[in-house]
Amino acid sequence: MRSLWNGSISFGLVNVPVKMFAATEDKDIRFRTLHKSCYTPIQYRKFCPSCDQEVEASELVKAYEYEKGRFVVFEEHDFEALAVAQTRSIDIIDFVDLSEIDPIYFYKSYYLGVGDTGQKAYWLLRKAMEATGKIAVAQVVLRDKQHLAAVRVLPECLSLAMMFYPDEIRPAQVLAPAGDVKLHDNEIQMATQLIDSLSTAFTAEKYTDDYRAELLKAIEAKIAGESVSMPVAQQPGKVVDLMEALKASLALVEANKQKQSERQIGN
Fold first, then answer.
1. 10 with 116, same domain?
2. For residue 136, is it within any domain?
3. Largest pairwise CA distance in the chain
4. Are residues 18 and 139 in the same domain?
């Protein structure tokens, strides 16, 4: 695995050399856009409607639209003056409990491996974080931008989870239901029972991207010159009675468990 970044974790006066690796990969299937009559990939060109002409990259500048149709232009030297220092350091600010951070703050993860030196410091930090059950809130500069991040312990190594800043999280209060919603005790009890029936240990491997698998099959079929038919998704019906829906769901869960048990006995 090729490292994306080399630097160090800094806390107090201690520096821990680390290498950063991608922890995830994008498996989205991407399609090209072709001209329908000849199947040639189309090109996107930059065009100025005021000058009625195509423009080159060298003729472009960046600008911020502060009012409709009104801009302030930023040249390259303006950005250079604002650039944050490339410290190549993951600067730990605080140690906190993971449970204190809502998952909505996290958006991308990296592995942090041992650097070329400082192996003892790496394992010391890892062991200390493991013993205290803490994760580290830190800041790091990547690609000329300062990011908020969390350093935490995985079974194999340390990891760096990129985080949104608080002002990047939209408030959810506007989505709260208007007025009081009356719930009966038997409704809550049955809903809780349904959750308990569906509760299990988390096993990541059981969750698969079925659409992507079907799309890959369709692509292979197209390449082989075969016709493609995708399964029609079943549309969910309208819930007429909440209690009846809960009862039916519980019955379905029990029936599925019974079938699974019979299959295991048969094997």
1. yes
2. yes
3. 76
4. yes
